[in-house]
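Incident review: delayed structure delivery

Summary: a single-chain prediction request sat in the queue longer than the usual turnaround. Root cause was a stuck worker, restarted by the on-call engineer. No data loss occurred. The affected request and its eventual output are reproduced below so the record is complete for anyone auditing the incident later.

Affected input:
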Amino acid sequence: MSRALLNTVLFLPALLCLTACGKAETSTSRDGAVQISFEQISANQAWEKLTSSGERPERLAGEGGLQYFMRQVELSDIRRRELGLTFWHDYPNDPRRYKWLALTVRIPPHYAKDIHEWTGNETTINPNTAALNTDALAKWEKVYPDMREAFRNSAEVTDIERRFLWAMEINQTLLRMVEAHTRGDHVDAASVLEKIAIFAEAYPEAFSENDKSSYYSNIGNLIRYVMGHHRAVFGLDEEEGIYGFIERLADTGNKAASSLSKVLLKRRQNANQEKKVDLSEGRQMFMSLPSTVGYQPSTFEGHVAYDHDILVRNQKFREIGRTFWQKYFGQKEKLEWLAITSNGYSVSYDQNFVDKIRGVRTILDEEEVAEWEQAYAALSAEIFNDPQTTNAQRGYFLHKDINGQFRQVKNAWRDNKDKKGLQELLDNIHILYTEYGSHKDHNAHYITVTGPSVHSFTIIRDYKTLGMSDDDLLTFFEPMFSYEDEDLQNLAKAAFNHVELRRTPFEFKAQTLHGEVFDVKDLRGKIVLVDHWNTGCSACIAAMPGIDRTYQKYKDKGFEVVSICYDATERKKRVLRIEEELGLTWPTVDGESQEAFIKKKYGYQGYPQYMLLNRDGTLYAGTGEVAMGRNLPALLDEMLGAEQASKNK
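Output delivered after worker restart:
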């Protein structure tokens, strides 16, 4: 590696900022002041360096946008590994090192011998044939076993995290085997298939209700990887091999693994029995583009790894697809590809890849944004003006375009209090109904009919974060009272009810899960967060621990939380388990019998939904403003500050 490249590695951004904190070694002076040890200060500085944003590498002459982006990704992963190894050995009592290890195993550097060759390979849909840096890989494999043992034996690590690491080890092994097969090296397929079976056997079921989606997704991804994406690599392209693997999975006692393998086998058999269809070259190329990631993990490390994969795959899908536009894609592929890429900016348009992964607000690269907007305008105009494009397809495309407009309008208001693009967004939602949503063409995509309702509900939920006033909201919905669509009429009524809620107290009365009568009126005089949810909403459950941390911090200042669960009658046992596992101490109310009324009155078309109520029961902030509870502390400080200022007058 050249000196210039080495310097670039050392100053590149780390992959993420981990939230786990090391335990400070402290002492107490005579006056009671807590003193943090020098070692803890040093550890914090080292951790800050490991998770810092760093600097972007300079773009090389002639380097394409996707190559530049992928080089940032790989160099960031290398930097994270090298700084993490130092942190691991220098601070053996700091539990943050376990968070680092879990992510390093989940998102490993690819150990390319020549990073420029590797990035070149990553910009195509062909298998990556970049030469492997065997010395770097051997170095890692030498130190990893001892770190793994420390991880598994640490009291700071949970069972879910141990299982996560094991699954990611197998995932990394699969990656290495596919790379080896591509290079023509020998692959011991039987050994890794047995590792998957042993893992399924060790964890026949999830640890808890809240962990189910993450765990079964991990199992499913491993099985899909070998049975669906790389059958030839793992010897599953012959009937004997695939039947043997399915029998082995069935023997593990893991119902999820057994069921999924049978489903994949049935699909394969059906495909073999059906008449082969000759796909066009464009269709084949479109289907070969990187697919989206299809699971939602429950651990923090899993979420960061998930975001990493999403951003990389989206960037590849967009940039590789642009190179195929004229040469390979037909009208159908162009429409599908453009609809997928219309949902806002990909990570390359943020100045810092790592900050994007961390969820930190980043600064857009205005030059790249302008380049994409110009290209996008030309590509979309070509599709709209194509005689082959139907009216239904134009509606579908406009629906997807509106999704991206929402993001842009929110950002403009958040960053500059600018209503740029707002009126165009509102006009397009009405156009989607008046020009595309009311037709009866049986070939129309379903979304052109439901799209106006979906977007109108989003307006109710997020209008404050879009820069709209109450009057703006009512002006937008007023025309919908005259529309034929009953859903839009109901949403218009809900919008007026929502505004009225800012003047009229929220009322709700039902029983708690323990049979006690709950009336929200009894909480008058308190600031109250009403959390509307159901057990099928994983995002609702994932947000609860964060809300609980805020509750514990502010409850002595007059803050209360109440959850209204809208399937608590049917799934009472599950709701109670969730409540117990998360250690929630606020009341959960059974709202199942009143779900239809609440949805119609306030326009709720999904969960989670939040109401942050003033002490008089009126609405202070809605779902979009509460932002899954992430913005809750700031809102409470704002409310309490206003109260104090009023008292001081």
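Verification: The longest strand covers residues 527-533.
Action items: add queue-age alerting; document worker restart procedure.
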